[in-house]
Fold these 2 entries.
Entry 1:
Amino acid sequence: MCGIFGVIGQNAVSSTLRALKLLEYRGYDSAGIAVKREGFLEICKTEGRIAKLQQLAQALSEGRTAIGHTRWATHGEVSTANAHPFLSPNGKFAIVHNGILENYAELKAQLGKEKFTSQTDSEVVAHLLEREHRGNVLETVLTVSRMLKGSFAIVVLSTEDNKLFAIKNKSPLVVGFSQTGSYLCSDIRCVAHWANSVAVTPDNTVVELSDSSARFFTLDGAPLKVDFFVPEAGESLPQTDGDLMLKEITEIPDKLRRAKQAYFDGGGLQLTVEQARKIRRIYLVGCGTAYNSGMQAISVARQWLDVDAIPVIAGEFIYDNYPVDGDTLSIFISQSGETADTLRAAERVREMGGITYAVTNTAGSSLTFACRHTINIGAGGEFAVASTKAYNCQLVSLTLLLLDLGRMRGTVPFSFYSKLVEEMDALPDAVSQILEESYLVARLAERVKDCSAVFYIGRTTDYPTACEGSLKLKEISYIHSEAYPAGELKHGTLALIDDSVCVVAISTDKALKDKMVSSVKEVTSRGAKVVSVAPYELPDCEPLLLPALHPALAGIVAAVPLQLLAYYVAKRLGRDVDKPRNLAKSVTVE
Ligand code: AGP
């Protein structure tokens, strides 16, 4: 997934460079800019981070029309040659692309002996535009748009026209206006730094953007009406000397308060009692951390739900045969609201007539348009690639949503409902207490950093927490890690346990403490070091003690020591915790 930006207006070069910095979370292995000059298009691009491009771009004079791109490689290695923008052979067109052209090889073959400068799929579009151009750029863009298959948000700059054009299908593209300019961008929060009126471009649409207006067309050229709205103010990149990830972990206490408030401010479960009682099946659908929060929320709500509730990985949901009907409630969880797998799953449920909910951190994101209802988790901008505060806030929103559903279905007594809602007010202090003792986690990180592998184990509601802890460690420290239901190790994985391995045992349910003691003995007797995350000590473990909490809420807090552990281990290994290798914040390709 990549970040794309286009602007017609004052200071187009500096605006584009600033936008790319805001979009860097979407991919950061190379970047580039193209500026419209008199009779030609000037390109500046480089492998490496935006800072390197900003250095190089100091040589560029300002302009009125520019496009920019920050890349997360899908086709072709990380190199300057594979960085966007791409020029057409005679320099008439420059393009930037976010997505995957599934038929690029076929299109490339049709272009015969034309010389390509990159190994990418995207460059084909620049060549096609020039080959199909007969004088009218809009007609050219429409013609080429009908040739493409796959996911794409493509912005086109040409020497032939003072406008910008775009082709959009499945990858996000926002159109925006301010008093001084017009914009095309991958991300609504980014464009909101300039635009006070925005529109989310529908799939299979061509956009023609001038300095004061936008026209939308179907790929056959029929005009489309698209509504504009006022976006939430764009959040600037936080100014911090330290790491964004640690900053965002320290925000968790305050964001938990906001998540609870945001749930009620957003109207809570927007179903009638009759609709709630008709529901026969529930899916919680997401990817990565979002999937883990769904798994955790369902493992807790299972104690009060009388209906089948299943966590499903979005990328599986699309291609598997999960039954959906009008009595199916599907909750799509996504911090960015732009994850392609999750969007495709939501579109599929909507087509099948299911009830769709978006639980997201990004107002106005594509997911909020794909779903009938939206709950904002109130976590505020999350810029570190490894998701932390969004996970904890998703759990607050999901727990309240599933609690409301139980209350409306009559399986949750009001006394239990109100007690749990009240107990949520204890969460911020509980997290603050863990943050105050984070030095204990930092000290443990010293022992974990040299392990050959780290296994996270937990039973029932602690297993999803184990999954999230393991994902955090993997994605920023690059240490191999896996999560297991605690009772499962002995069915094979125990063969991997030796004195080079560390095990993190999560145990928040006192009723299962003795079971966890047995699991710990199985691994310590084979040489493993064990760290426990529990409100009580476990024998033979290095303890990370949790504050005592309502069992249904323990998972919201138990993740915090694991987030900190991943952070400190990665720091000790000298990793880039905010922008880990091979990753990006929002995966907008399937
Ligand atoms: C989280 O730490 C990961 N970076 C990643 O798994 C992420 O949770 C996943 O890509 C889903 O993103 P979303 O919540 O924006 O949909």
Note: The mean pLDDT is 95.
Entry 2:
Amino acid sequence: MVTEEELITQLNKSCLPRHVAIIMDGNGRWALARGLERIFGHQAGMESLREVVKLCVELGIQVLTVYAFSTENWKRSRLEVDFLMGLLIKYLYQEIDELCANKVKIKILGNFEKFTTEVQAAINMAIEKSQSNNGLNFNIALNYGGRFEIVEATKVMAQKVASGRLAIEEINEVLFADHLYTAGQPDPDLLIRPAGDFRVSNFLLWQIAYTEFWFTEVKWPDFRRIHFLQALIDFQNRERRFGG
Ligand code: FPP
């Protein structure tokens, strides 16, 4: 098997994606394959997340976005939803000091008002503590849905038009993007989806117009630095034409 050192030598550090997005998939299947309950897959997936964030910091990547909880994930069992929320709280309180030491700035993509006050407190703490950091922009998509995001942006622009603060002629792609959670950030250059499925699952629908996709059979709890590096190298070997 290829080593991390070999992969690092293949990587062109001057040509990294500015924004990497990840659909952290396969936690449930990882656990079931080991005779464990699904929640243990999420727990194991935390370690993968820690590794990837650390690597993004080391490489100087500008933006990392992870899909932690979708608008559809509410359909899961109460136990699983509560467990995921507990993990999020634990992650934020445990990691915030190290994240801040590494200048990581946390942003939430999604409407988190629906979460319990305990979850909201953890999120607000992390946002506040990290707000002046100027390193990696770490977006955590929570109660996020791409269609919902687009509809919400449309509503805000429609309200501005209705109240005379915006002219219809002023609406263009740049203005639209400015009304999304990712306003001001570059679109993802690379989207990684582990666990063998080839779909987008309502993730960053507007932002991925020209994103390169990278898929692997490896399930998220087994996803390690070597997989991330492999994705970066494959990305660097692609020719991006942006429709041109
Ligand atoms: C998808 O796997 C994963 C999720 C819905 C949750 C991802 C959450 C984590 C990795 C926990 C750590 C994250 C934070 C921010 C604390 P799945 O359950 O759909 O897997 P399956 O397709 O095998 O069932």
Note: The pocket of farnesyl diphosphate is lined by residues 24-29, 38, 42, 45-46, 49, 68, 73, 84, 87-88, 91, 140, 195, 220 (CB under 6 Å).
